[in-house]
Amino acid sequence: MDIPILYEDNHLLAVEKPVNIPVQADQTGDPDLLTMLKADIKIRYQKPGNVYLGLVHRLDRPVGGVMVFAKTSKAASRLSDAIRRRAFDKTYLAIVRGTPQDKQAKLLHHLWKDQKKNQVYVVPENDARGKKAILDYKVIGEAKGMSLLEIKLHTGRPHQIRVQLSTIGCPLYGDQKYGQTVNKPGQQIALWASELGFEHPTTKEWVKVSQAPPHHFPWNTWEYQQQS
């Protein structure tokens, strides 16, 4: 599989994750991104033995876009620390059904994941199982009964964007799990990791890596937005 490399040096590797590819090996046994990238590094640099590649953040299987991996344990530790300190900027684009009541807002919910069902639920603030989930969104386009949102993610909870937007009545286009009443089987979920920003683990310079979503429906409804 041809995986676009967006940024690479001795410490980091940033790529465009393809949609519907798991980030790491799971029970399906399907090819996964981490294994593919390790194999690619081994071939490109003719490395003997095992290749180190640290997984510091994740994207859900159906979601595509920018991901960064650590090529050294030191880089992995420092990036993980940045994520813990919320000093790791994550920007997403999402296409939702309908239009949120507020064109720009901060969403705060408490989420609990049922591991057996792989389903996430909003729970009351005093529910000990819940973990705080925070994001900011801004509507940047509206057309055909859908809205294009730019999302800044402040916490990295499982299915967070999908659940929070569904909770305010605007499920993601194509999301079968949290928007089954308005989406049809076979539609691809319209969520894209468009940009990552973080301090380089060794040079301390600010690194920004971005990638536009694919140019097909429903993304091409807002082609002008991607090029502006």
Notes on the structure:
This protein is 16% helix and 35% strand. With 228 residues, it is an alpha+beta fold. Strands 1, 2, 3, 4, 5, 6, 7, 8, 9, 10 and 11 form an eleven-stranded mixed beta sheet that branches.
The CATH architecture is: 2-Layer Sandwich
| Number of structural domains | 1
CATH superfamily: Pseudouridine synthase
CATH topology: Pseudouridine synthase
Poorly predicted parts = 224-228
Assign a percent range to the helix content. Answer: 10-25%
Q: CA-to-CA gap between the ends?
A: 30 Å
Largest sheet entry: 11 strands, mixed
Encode the helix/strand succession as letters: EEHEEHEEEEEHEEH
Beta strands, count: 11
CATH first level: which class?
Alpha Beta
Structural class: alpha+beta
What is the strand and helix layout of this fold?
Layout: E1 5-8, E2 12-17, H1 33-44, E3 54-55, E4 64-70, H2 73-84, E5 89-97, E6 104-114, E7 119-123, E8 131-143, E9 146-153, H3 160-167, E10 191-199, E11 206-210, H4 223-227
Parallel strand pairs: 4-10
Antiparallel strand pairs: 1-2, 2-4, 3-4, 5-9, 5-10, 6-7, 6-8, 8-9, 10-11
